[in-house]
From TrEMBL:
<dbReference type="InterPro" id="IPR013130">
    <property type="entry name" value="Fe3_Rdtase_TM_dom"/>
</dbReference>
<feature type="transmembrane region" description="Helical">
    <location>
        <begin position="7"/>
        <end position="26"/>
    </location>
</feature>
<dbReference type="InterPro" id="IPR001433">
    <property type="entry name" value="OxRdtase_FAD/NAD-bd"/>
</dbReference>
<keyword id="KW-0479">Metal-binding</keyword>
<dbReference type="GO" id="GO:0016020">
    <property type="term" value="C:membrane"/>
</dbReference>
<dbReference type="GO" id="GO:0016491">
    <property type="term" value="F:oxidoreductase activity"/>
</dbReference>
<feature type="transmembrane region" description="Helical">
    <location>
        <begin position="179"/>
        <end position="200"/>
    </location>
</feature>
<feature type="domain" description="FAD-binding FR-type">
    <location>
        <begin position="205"/>
        <end position="305"/>
    </location>
</feature>
<dbReference type="InterPro" id="IPR039261">
    <property type="entry name" value="FNR_nucleotide-bd"/>
</dbReference>
<feature type="transmembrane region" description="Helical">
    <location>
        <begin position="76"/>
        <end position="99"/>
    </location>
</feature>
<keyword id="KW-0285">Flavoprotein</keyword>
<dbReference type="InterPro" id="IPR017927">
    <property type="entry name" value="FAD-bd_FR_type"/>
</dbReference>
<feature type="transmembrane region" description="Helical">
    <location>
        <begin position="147"/>
        <end position="167"/>
    </location>
</feature>
<dbReference type="InterPro" id="IPR017938">
    <property type="entry name" value="Riboflavin_synthase-like_b-brl"/>
</dbReference>
<protein>
    <submittedName>
        <fullName>Oxidoreductase</fullName>
    </submittedName>
</protein>
<dbReference type="GO" id="GO:0050660">
    <property type="term" value="F:flavin adenine dinucleotide binding"/>
</dbReference>
<keyword id="KW-0411">Iron-sulfur</keyword>
Amino acid sequence: MRTVQLFWGLVLLNVAVVWTLFFTIAPEPKHALVGVGQFLGLHAALLMILQLTLVARLPWLDRRVGMDRLTSWHRWTGFTLFWVVLLHPLFVMAGYAAVSHSSTWQQFRNLAGMLGSLVGMIALVVVVVAAAASLRSVRRRLQYETWHAVHVLLYAAVALVLVHQLFEVSAFTAAPVATAYWWALWVFALGALLVGRIAMPLWRNARHRLRVAAVVPESDDVVSVHISGRDLDRLPARAGQFFIWRFPGYARWWQANPFSLSAAPDGRTLRLTAKAVGGASAALRHVPVGSRVFAEGPYGAFTSLRRTRDKTLLVAGGVGVTPIRALLEELSGDVVVLYRVHSRADAVLLAELESLAHERGARVHLLAGRTGAGSPPFAPFAPDNLATTVPDVAERDIFVCGPPPMTEAVIRALRALKVPRSQIHAERFRLAA
């Protein structure tokens, strides 16, 4: 919690600095509407820098906040950026149109003829496309690889915004202190991105030299891939975390997928288990043994380090069982597992869960059936039903991973049962590019 407060405190501090610079040293705008547009432009640059920081995947921030929460922040920051970037040129064009007694369309044509404004407009188009691809109704229809490729284009938008800012002389370069401040922010954000997304993954992969050791089908549409490498005992991975996996030479470089570890790291091998939901994940069962593997990570705070109690409840839905299975292997004490599936045939890794539970004295409840079916309706995560299955649920840490509707249903039930928020840990299937 302290890390979250510190992070957003720093964000608000920078907002205050931007406001101070704008109202004290920025030149007087030619029109009030132009001033509003310039004010929004400053916030667009600040939001872009914030986005770079959120997607840099810095280990320090990820371990304390969690990739799931960082991705949620990224999503809301992205939609805020969309509206700010959209309104920024509209106000500027309206202001200049009022000053010159011309049409907004004429001002658009004038600005499009200037290099600094033109690159800003191109960046706006990229941001609009990425925002459209992130709408839930659109996102559900896109394969993960397509969605990821669209979001990679945002790095081109970042470069265009930086060029646009360099050509903007009203507020960014009005005084040496403003120039130094903005350059410091950009250097920090771009440096964090280069370290977190490029330098660290390259160093780790050169060190560990990951390769496919085995490919094991778990069902018709689920496969496990075993990964071997050097010095894996020095890789700081924990049960419950995930990596971004690439298989260069077999799949295209931009086909990267986030898959959780489905077994606790043992210092010798890593294992991922994936369901075929896209082209890359469906092709995993055909990856040749010995293929090179490139992995970014480990990421995520969905680990036993988040425990606050001796007792634990693990709740899995569908292929969300993968980090749950890994956690069960690592956890000690009183552990209960709830595994939600449509039918027993869908319960991949069930035999492993039951074997681990037998070894550790844990209990596994398979919750199979269609929600709402039968009489009374099947509703395993209704508060009363959950309390019946796990009477001491309020005394446990709860780790939840599964499809969003199931995860939200579990969290609602836990809140209705007065389980403290500090004991609820959720991993959702979403990731920033």
